[in-house]
Design brief:
alpha+beta, 2 domains, six-stranded mixed beta sheet
Length: 314
């Protein structure tokens, strides 16, 4: 594993030869976002709870759209960044991820473009439209509060991960950190600021909630989707939300536990590449933080250890 730090930017890189390209991810420590509201904006959930944290979720999604536009807003942007798809997720930490070509230059260009786009205080127009789509009224002072939290997170630390089919060299990574750090300028919000109004709590009584987080939640998510195609699944700060009534969810849990040996057999075929491949896939889907991916690669769990964590969460 190679690592580099420059100012508020830290980058770690790890190679797995089994990956077809490189997963790149940025993590920002922003507490208080409604993860299901954010995923609903992404089109990956179907929650309409309008809960506390929805305003911050709209500000975070506006920031994501700005990053996405910088990476693939048009054909020229995509040509420069070598990026076609950008994803966001929230598991207590805000994550933006994308896949790009496995070269130091492609990773450097995409990371620099993404970090340069971390300007939350300039995105009131996008925030206003997103709040409207959620059925909420817009208040400039509330936006300043939310955007200010995002800017503070950017000023505190921007953690970056690069995992996939790339041969990271120390000198390239340090140069990358220097270039990316120079692009970071989140700015500050002008005008008054106040905390957003409180919303209703998230009602998950009609869903099945599996208490799992980090890379374990991602493995279970993929496992559920392989055994129950078509069932909608969402990973957020509340855990893994399966959009099935609790009774059907219990039946699914039993089915998954019975098939655990098959999962273990499949994962064991990856051998020493298991941990980095799990990290690559989880980062690609925006399901884990940079620190969680790093911890997974460092710990190098065996297939049986991975399945034990999965069945334990089920």
């Amino acid at each position: 594993m190679q690592q580099a730090n420059k100012g508020r930017v830290s980058i770690f890189a790890y190679r797995t030869k089994f990956a077809p390209d490189v997963a790149v991810s940025i993590s920002l420590n922003v507490p208080g976002i409604s993860g299901c509201c954010l995923k609903t904006l992404c089109g990956r959930c179907k929650c309409d709870c309008n809960s506390t944290g929805c305003a911050l979720a709209c500000a975070a999604y506006a920031l994501f759209l700005n990053v996405s536009s910088a990476l693939k807003g048009d054909a020229l942007s995509s040509k420069k960044s070598k990026v076609s798809t950008v994803r966001c997720g929230y598991t207590g930490t805000l994550n933006f991820s994308w896949n790009t070509k496995g070269t130091a230059s492609a990773v450097r260009v995409s990371l620099a473009a993404a970090v340069k786009a971390l300007t939350p205080c300039k995105l009131f127009s996008s925030y206003k439209q997103l709040m409207k789509s959620c059925g909420n009224k817009t208040d400039r002072a509330e936006f300043n509060h939310c955007a200010g939290k995002l800017a503070a997170a950017c000023n505190a630390a921007v953690d970056c991960a690069v995992v996939g089919n790339i041969k990271p060299k120390s000198e390239h990574l340090h140069k990358m950190a220097e270039v990316v750090a120079k692009k970071l300028n989140p700015g500050s919000c002008k005008g008054s600021s106040k905390a957003p109004r409180s919303g209703a709590g998230c009602n998950l009584e009609s869903c099945t909630v599996i208490k799992a987080n980090g890379w374990v939640a991602h493995v279970i998510k993929e496992y559920v989707q392989s055994k129950a195609p078509g069932v909608r699944v969402c990973v957020c700060e509340k855990g893994l939300i399966v959009y099935l009534p609790p009774s059907q969810g219990d039946t699914l849990r039993t089915k998954l536990k019975k098939s655990a040996k098959v999962l273990s057999k499949r994962l064991s075929k990856l051998k020493d590449e298991l941990a980095p491949m799990l990290a690559y896939l989880a980062l690609s889907n925006g399901c884990v933080t940079v620190s969680s991916a790093k911890s997974l690669i460092t710990s190098k769990p065996s297939a049986s250890a991975v399945v034990s964590k999965v069945t334990g969460a089920l």
